[in-house]
Amino acid sequence: MGIADRIEKRLLGMARVLCLIALVGAILAMIALMFALGVPRTAAVITDPPVSASEVLSSIAGSEAANDGLKIGSANGNAMADVAGAAGLIIPAPLNALLNQNNASQPLLKAWLERIPQADRQQFLDELSDVVAAAGQHAATWEWDNRERYVAAAMDQYARVKIGRIDAAQSAVQAAEGKNAQFGSSLGILLALTGFLTLLLLLTAIERNTRNSAVKRQE
Predict the structure, then answer these.
(1) Buried residues in 18-55 as b, exposed as e (16+ CB within 10 A)
(2) Distance between CA atoms of 33 and 184, rounded to whole angstroms?
(3) Which site among 18, 59, 83, 212 is 20 to 30 Å from 2 CA-CA?
(4) Could you tell me what percent of the chain has a pLDDT over 90?
(5) Is 90 exceeded by the pLDDT of residue 57?
(6) Which sequence ranges are marked TM in the entry (predicted)?
(7) Higher per-residue pLDDT: 99 or 144
(8) What are the C-alpha distances in Å from 28 to residues 15, 16, 32, 38, 191?
(9) Contact 151, 139 (CB under 8 A)
């Protein structure tokens, strides 16, 4: 066996060792990724975080003058009076009574519902109705001299808090989905790398066996 053959044999041996190390590393990485994808998240994201009436009313603090900055959202004059966004949903009695008494609240509710996912709209209506009922009772002993303004401010506060929490929850869900997609992409790359390394090991094994057979025949 010449010097060139010895060098080639040594290089092939080193390549085989490196392939084995890389293959083991790729397999371990795949196991870790599959474990990360398979284990459920300990803190599941609540896509429709609840907002209680007491929480809303407690956030409207101070006197009437201090709350003048709480503005009711602008209503869309072209909105349908029957609150199209609530079609097929049950509007609880306190909220339904308010909508019948105050037509201006209907387009406002429609605008809010358009920002709420369809699956979460019924809970939005239920919680908003609780806020309306609690605000109507609370206004009797409050510093506000206008019950309707107080109820409207409570509704606006609830909508802002609720929509903000839903948006934050949806962002968290999207981030988790993006992370899972990255894990899946990495797993695919590792699978391809594992196949490539396995093929290299197979080729080096075939070459080694062929070389050994040729050496034995020469002897």
Answers:
(1) ebeebbeebeebbeebeeeeeeeeeeeeeebeebebee
(2) 8
(3) 18
(4) 9
(5) no
(6) 12-37, 187-206
(7) 99
(8) 20, 18, 6, 15, 11
(9) yes
Nearest to 198 by CA among 11, 16, 59: 16
Cβ atoms 33, 25 nearer than 8 A: no
* % pLDDT > 70, the chain: 73
Instruction: Find the radius of gyration of the CA atoms of the chain.
Output: 34
> CA torsion, points 96, 102, 108, 114, in degrees to nearest 10?
30
CA distance linking residue 85 with residue 28, whole number of Å? 51
- 91 contact partners, CB below 8 Å, separation of at least 6: 83, 99, 125, 129
Residue 127 pLDDT more than 90?
yes
- Whether the model clears a pTM of 0.70, i.e. scores above it, the answer is no
Q: What is the DSSP string of the chain?
A: --HHHHHHHHHHHHHHHHHHHHHHHHHHHHHHHHHHHHSPPSS---SS----HHHHHHTS-S-TGGGTT-PPPPP-TTS-TT-GGGTTS---HHHHHHHHH-TTHHHHHHHHHHTS-GGGHHHHHHHHHHHHHHHHHHGGGSS-S-HHHHHHHHHHHHHHHHHHHHHHHHHHHHHHHHHHHHHHHHHHHHHHHHHHHHHHHHHHHHHHHHHHHHHHHH-
pLDDT of residue 140: 54
